[in-house]
Amino acid sequence: MKYNIQQGESRDIVISVSDLHISFGRLAVLKGIDLEVYKGENFVVLGRSGSGKSVLIKTIAGLLKPDKGIVNVLGLQVDKLKVHDLQKLRLKMGFIFQSSALYDSMTIRENLEFSLVRNFKHMTAREVLKAVEEVLDAVGLREKINEMPSELSGGQIKRIGIARTLIIRPEIMLYDEPTAGLDPITCTEINQLINEVQSRYNTTSIIITHDLTCAKTTGTRIALLQDGNFIRMGSFTDVFDPGDSRVKSFYDYNFIQ
């Protein structure tokens, strides 16, 4: 089934998933997922814990291989790429892990420098520092440049995780539960930051979440994943039809008015 995107948006397909099946042993997690993500949109995949949301973006990133189906990213079939070509593609994809995955023994500056020094060996020390300062400005934490991760709040660590991903200037951002474990005020700040990143860097994003506020605030389109398939897809209003019993319990749980 095809779904319309909002008027004025580009229809260039950045990510395409067709008939994706993934199982772990006898447990079928994804049962024939079809998906197209368009350039410049924030696409939210919403579902309960264990519904396969993270499995989907890990497959898009090439961290998991499909049992069946095709995953194309930027025109390339991910599971058919050789290691070197997959590594090159991943430089165009930023993966923001739920834990942010910072190195505890490094300062914030060292955490951010690590990706650049590893992947862009031609950069000078001055260019690296400029890039670090720019992304810290983008997430509003430049003053934390010499602090350790242990000195930061949960929300600040999430922001640094986003900054560390932005520093390689990816075309695609993959957010895995970006508001998990945060208080409501900090969740609002992270949601605003996701939108600011899309606007400032013209990224295309997939946002994995079980948080309806995150979905409603950030999503250009939303897909509700249940029992291994998308059961509804479209705008927030399209997806959260109060007359659909499959949606109502999810809606009531999140206390969205």
Average pLDDT reading: 89
Instruction: Give the structural class.
Output: alpha/beta
Q: Please report which band the strand proportion falls in: under 5%, 5-15%, 15-25%, 25-35%, 35-45% or over 45%.
A: 15-25%
Strand count: 10
SSE order in H/E notation?
Answer: EEEHEEHEHHHEHEHEEHH
Low-pLDDT windows of residues:
1-10
Distance between the termini: 29 Å
Main β-sheet, in a few words? 6 strands, mixed
Number of helices: 9
Shape: globular
The gyration radius over C-alpha positions equals: 18 Å
State the strand order across the main sheet.
6-7-8-3-9-10
Q: Please estimate the helix content.
A: 25-40%
Q: If you had to describe this structure to a student in words, what would you say it looks like?
A:
With 257 residues, the chain is of the alpha/beta class. It has a domain at 99-169. It is 37% helix and 25% strand. It has helices at residues 53-60, 83-90, 108-119, 125-138, 154-166, 184-201, 212-218, 236-239, 245-254; strands at 13-24, 27-38, 42-46, 68-73, 76-77, 93-96, 172-176, 204-209, 221-226, 229-234. α3 packs parallel to α5, α4 crosses α5 (154-166) and α6 (184-201) runs parallel beside α7 (212-218). The model is unreliable at 1-10 (pLDDT under 50).
